[in-house]
Amino acid sequence: MRELTLILAFSLFSSLLFRPLPADAPNSADPTTAGATKSNRMGIGAQIHITTEDGRQQWNEVTTAVGYASSSDSRVHFGLGSNRHIEDMEIRWPSGIRQTLHNLEVDLILTIEEPQR
After folding, report:
1. CATH assignment of 23-113, among 1.10.1060, 2.60.40, 3.30.300, 1.10.10
2. Distance CA 59, CA 43 (A)
3. Which of 7, 69, 76, 99 is deepest in the core (most CB within 10 A)?
């Protein structure tokens, strides 16, 4: 695998430097929702609740709103520390459908589709 270092230079602001994470960097999960059945197509408003292997719980909501006149990526980010998998992930879709996934891998971008039921 090739590593990439990226430098972004802005005329009005400081430059930003992005480097590859070291091999011992903390794990993460970045689920993205696709509400193609009953909810809106991006799953905006879906609530995601995770339980990690060490028993810790986190939740977040799918949104693109981050401030006045701006938006962001709709992926939801969970920092997982040293956990190597997610025990359970529950998604509460805007349509009211609840979906639970088990034993998920980490350090991936997961695309989760709303079930038909």
Report:
1. 2.60.40
2. 15
3. 76
